[in-house]
Amino acid sequence: MIQVGGFLMVQPTSILGPEVEGGPGQFMSSSQSTVPVYLVGPHVALTGDYLVCKFVDNRWVAERSMVSHSSGVTTTVPNCICSQIPTTLSMISSDPNCNFGMFQSCSIVYGPTPSGYANLQIGVNSFLSVESFPDAVANGAEFRYLFSCYLNQFNLSRVYLESPYGSPYRDGLLYSWLISGYGNSCDPFALDYGSAYPGSDASCFVTISGG
Q1: Of the candidates 121, 122, 92, which has an alpha carbon nearest to the alpha carbon of residue 107?
Q2: What is the spatial distance between Cα 117 and Cα 128, in angstroms, rounded to a whole number?
Q3: Which residues, in sequence order, are CB contacts of 70 under 8 Å at separation 6+?
Q4: Within 10 A of 138 (CB to CB), how many other CB atoms are there?
Q5: Which helix (H) or strand (E) holds 41?
Q6: Residue spans per domain, the chain
């Protein structure tokens, strides 16, 4: 399980290739050994990432900074302190299994709200996850994430076209970030430090960034 503040197993990797300007590097990983590395953060590493590891205080450590691949396209959300928000966002969950799989990594995109959600009154346009996920607590009902902003607070909830609770249905606040909080900013857009709803699994850690 990869999470900030814990150890992950990495494969030592050498960077080879011709030493010429503009020459491509060649990554050669050792499949015979793994090394425990403490992940400082602030972001969660993903399987397949290359990390620069340093030996500090008798252990290997690595950082994972935010990597943005934003297209530069932004939008304005009414009553939000951030004047420009990227239309494509990346949501990263530190543990997809925490709290019965409530928080999954996905892409969130701003666009026209599907007509099936009209009764939820979430606006003509909205930030919705591209992917949908089964809710283990609601008999596998499929949900998408809804990302919204009001003043200086960003919120995450789930919306269902069909569910045991109603069709359509929007649940309560799952996770929130204050833009005035440490590590959160409008430009570059980054929500690194937030909190899940009271009573949730304390191990759930979710970040959102432009890209």
Answers
A1: 92
A2: 11
A3: 86, 88, 188, 189, 210, 211
A4: 18
A5: strand 35-42
A6: 7-64, 74-210
> pLDDT (tens digit, 9 = 90+) per residue, 99-111?
888 999 999 999 9
Hey, how many other C-beta atoms are within 10 angstroms of the C-beta on 182? Answer: 7
pLDDT in tens, 18-64: 788 777 777 788 777 899 999 987 777 777 778 899 999 899 999 87
Confirm if 115 and 123 have CB atoms less than 8 A apart.
no
Could you tell me whether strands 125-129 and 141-150 are parallel, antiparallel, or unpaired per DSSP bridges? antiparallel
Both tokens of 57, joined, read 């205080």
Nearest-angstrom CA–CA distance, 4 and 193: 12
Write the CB contacts of 118 (distance below 8 Å, at least 6 apart in sequence). none
pLDDT digits (tens, 9 = 90+) for 118-155: 999 999 999 999 999 999 999 999 999 999 999 999 99
Quote the pTM value.
0.67
φ/ψ of 146, rounded to 5, equals -115, 125
Q: Are 95 and 204 in contact (CB under 8 A)?
A: yes
Q: Report how far residue 202's alpha carbon sits from residue 98's, in angstroms, rounded to the nearest whole number.
A: 9
| 23 CB burial (10 A radius; 0-12, 13-18, 19+) | exposed
